[in-house]
Amino acid sequence: MKFFQHQAQARRRTLKLLSLMALAVASLTALSSLGLGWLWRELNQESDQPKVLNWPLVAVVAALIVLVVLLGSWYKTWRLRAGGKVIAEHLGGRLINGAARNSDEQRLLNIVEEMALASGTTMPAVYVLPEEAINAFAAGLDPQQAVLGVTRGALARLERDELQGMVAHEFSHIHNGDMRLNTRLLAVIHGLLLFSLAGVLVLRQAEREHLASDRHRFIWQIVFAVLGLALLILGSLGTLLGNLIKAAIGRQREFLADASAVQFTRNPQGLSGALKKIGGCTAGSRLKAFNAAQYSHMYFHQGVQSRLDRLFATHPPLAERIRRLDPQWDGRYPGDSR
User: Fold this and answer.
1) Which of 170, 207, 209, 254 is catalytic?
2) Residues in the chain with pLDDT values less than 50
3) Is residue 170 among the annotated active site residues?
4) How big is the CA angle at 8 (ends 118 and 305), to the nearest 5 degrees?
5) Residue 301 included in any domain
6) How does pLDDT run across 288-331, given as a tens digit for each residue?
7) What is this structure's pTM?
8) 3-class DSSP state of 218
9) Could you tell me if 309 and 294 lie in one domain?
10) How many Å apart are CA 95 and CA 126, to the nearest integer?
């Protein structure tokens, strides 16, 4: 596996997708501000006057939209400030640093220490998740806050080199700054979601104007209805597009983490072996925790399933990841064994 070549390819594609995200936000801002400027022009200019947009108003609306997105993004980032510890606890994780209960947990701690040295990263807090599936995750806004979680199923089913490949993959996310990138993407999408919420509020105002007895308010009912519907549609489209781009970025970062893991371990067979065992495991990589879907982008492999996996999957297909690591793979998965 040419891991440096794969790393460069994944980084280039990530940059293109981030540019597309910025373009989506800019387009949403432009459409909203120009639309409001047009509506203001139609309502406030006499029929015999030339139709001219109020550009200062358009600029003010655009600035307000950017401010709303920034405030929404800041709020989401503030909510996630507690780091990976909270996420590990939400998933039912148990901290094992310095308190390994058995040889499997001690083996995990030894591997984590090795990968911390190999990647030049601070030793994270290590958690075991009470799940039979084969999966893992890394979370936290920065390496100092990072935690690493591994499922009980992974500890029971994976050989040492396979577990090392999985842990190296998660260290790659820490090393490459993927946790901070994911947090920023979530924050931007949360900011876009505020458009939809604003649209709902404006539509409710239109309903109140409709119930008012003053017939002169009819025009404002139309204004509020058009404005609210426009905000709702634009916000929904922006959120949908943002989630699609976030998922595409996530898939590229998984390829990058696979390549970086091979760089750390110099053993692609270990990582590919872990992925093959997911394919042959009855539980697969699916997590049963109540909050599992909320953190789907953080897992070693797809932790939840959806009918829209092809569009919103945060991880590449299992077979594609394996073939990048092992081009000679025959397509068969090993049987489920402990």
Assistant:
1) 170
2) 337-338
3) yes
4) 80
5) yes
6) 998 888 788 889 999 887 666 677 888 999 999 999 999 999 99
7) 0.77
8) helix
9) yes
10) 6
